[in-house]
Every structure is written in structure tokens, then in C-alpha cells.
Amino acid sequence: MTDLQASTAPSLSYELYPPRNEAAAGSLVETIAALEATAPDYVSVTYNGSPARRRASVELIGHLIEHTRLRPLAHLTCVGESRASLDRLVNHLVALGVRGVLALRGDLPPGHDAVGPGELPFARYLVELIREVEARRSASLAAGRLAIGVAAYPTRHPESPSFQHDVEVLLAKERAGANFAITQIFFDAAEYAHLVAAARAAGVRIPIVPGIMPVNSVRRLTRLAELAGLAPDAALLARLERASTDAERRRIGIDHAAALAHEAFVAGAPGLHLYTFNDAVDSVAVVDQLGLTGAGTADAAGADFGDANALAS
Ligand code: FAD
Questions:
Q1: ipTM score here?
Q2: Is 151 in the pocket of ligand 1 (CB under 6 A)?
Q3: Which family does it belong to (predicted)?
Q4: Which of 182, 159, 158 is nearest to 170 (CA)?
């Protein structure tokens, strides 16, 4: 472990997305309860798609605040929003009780090679905007600063000219005010370790939390890899293809994710962020296998985003 990471227990967090229909909303309540039982430090909520999908993200955050003891990390994207709408949205989220935001550019709509007119071009500018809103609201933010997370890429971002360029972009996001980073999915812990080493060499000081997903089907693996612009892991793909039952495929996904997370911890990871795909079973199994316990719910009521800030300290 490096000095940056030695003093605190590993953080534990999960990603959720808003439900697409009534049935999914019902099972999401069960998913949330199962995740809450592991006391995560925070739960992040994705943000994209149509205006209705975006409203559903804000509603899910409202649900987490009102009905659970979980701390939400609200994803926000430059894509699909004007500067003014993002300003309003950040204010609204803060008024709801949100104290953590993941500042993203968002994926470009198919056929586009840049954000739309009036949209902030890169995540760095969203980080700056959030810090501006925070400065305006400082009197009402007695509990402390907002925790701002950003994305980091163990393998080159699909639009980026090089891996090193991505590292410079991460440094720019830190300088704009980001406190921590969460990685895109990866299939080889050496790629995570390489990113952390390159980032530290470039002067990045913020914690870089590995983002890992237990993958329990060939379809999900290929779709996920496509979305992230990666080749699917060949060994994992072969094991999933050979498996004959869902239970076997789940076990493969859990074991693979737990092994990857273990290797990332050995490489000095300050925490673990699990992409749950709104399915608690596999993610909780990974957490159990690793023997992790979160620190999230003991004093969550009305608390600020203390653990993400602790990550950054
Ligand atoms: P940026 O950091 O702005 O980088 C985008 C591209 O621009 C990169 O290629 C970068 O190299 C380049 N770039 C940045 N700054 C400059 C510059 N000054 N000059 C030239 N090039 C530059 N997407 C969603 O839509 N909703 C979500 O909820 C969501 N959640 C995510 C959660 C995590 C943990 C991660 C890792 C990704 C998530 N994404 C989400 C996907 C993300 O939006 C995409 O990967 C997107 O394409 C890039 O976002 P970014 O924040 O990394 O952008």
C-alpha cells in the first residue's frame, strides 16, 4: 500500500441505475435493501438517456435519501445538459441532501464526435461548475465540501489519442477540484496498477478506486466490453461459454470479480466500486468472498459525504 492509502479501511461502493418499469422498480427496492445490509460507504446512481430517464435518476436519489441510510453519489453528465441546467441540477441535488457527485462528460450520441452546442465539452468543466455552485452555497454546506468523483481509464478511453493523454486529463480533473476517481471496468489488475503508477508519476494524488463488475453471462460480457471499447476478456469468455447452468455462470462471474478485486487491493487499491447491474446477489457474494465491510450506515442520517472525503484526505 502507498502512503495515500494506508490510513483508512478500503471503501465499498456500488453503482445502480434507475428502474425502467414498475416491475424493475419493485426488485430494485429489494436490491437496495440487500446492498444496504453490507453498509457501503456510498451508492452511485447513473445519469443518461431521455429526460424521463434523467428524472428517474433524480427520483432514485430522492428514494435513497428518504427511505434508506445509504449515501448517494449522483452521476451527472455534460452531454444532454446546458451549463444552466447543470447549475440548477447541482443546486437541486444539494438541496435534496446529496453531498457527492460523479462528474462525467457522458457518452456522445451515436454519430457525434463532440458534445452538442451549449454543452460543457469535457468533465473537467463540470467539476469546475460544481465547485462554483458549492462556493455560492457555502453557508448552507455546513457539513463540509462536496465530494467530487471523476472517471479514470485503465485502458485508453476510446476517443483518446493515447493512454498518457487520459492520465493528463485525469490530472486536469484533479486540478479542477476532483477528490477521487473511479475506474472504467477492466479485466486485468495489471492494467489498474499501470494506471495508478502512471497517474502518480504524472502528479495525480487523488485515490483511484477500481470499478469492477461480476459478469454472469456471455451476452453481458460482450455488451459491457463493447460499451467500454474493450475486447472481452478471452479466458472469462471461454469459461462462461463452457458453463452449462446459470448458477455456474454466476459462480464464474463472482470468482472472477473477487479475484480481480483482490489483485487490485494487492496493488494498493483504496476501495472497491462494484457495478451491480441492479443485481445485489453477485455483488454481495463478491463482498462476502473478499471479507469486506463498509463503513457507511452507522451515522448516515444527515451525514455529509465523509468517506469519499476521507478517501481524498
Ligand atoms: P472526459 O474526462 O471529459 O474525457 C472525454 C474524452 O475527451 C476523453 O477521450 C479525453 O481524453 C478527452 N479530453 C478530455 N479533456 C480534453 C481536452 N482538454 N482536450 C482534448 N481532449 C480531452 N456515462 C453516462 O452517460 N452516464 C453515467 O452515469 C456514466 N457513469 C460512469 C461511471 C464511471 C465510473 C465511468 C468510468 C464512466 C461512466 N460513464 C457514464 C461513461 C463516461 O461518460 C464515458 O466514458 C465518456 O465517454 C467520457 O466521460 P469522462 O467523464 O471520462 O470525460
A1: 0.99
A2: yes
A3: Belongs to the methylenetetrahydrofolate reductase family.
A4: 182
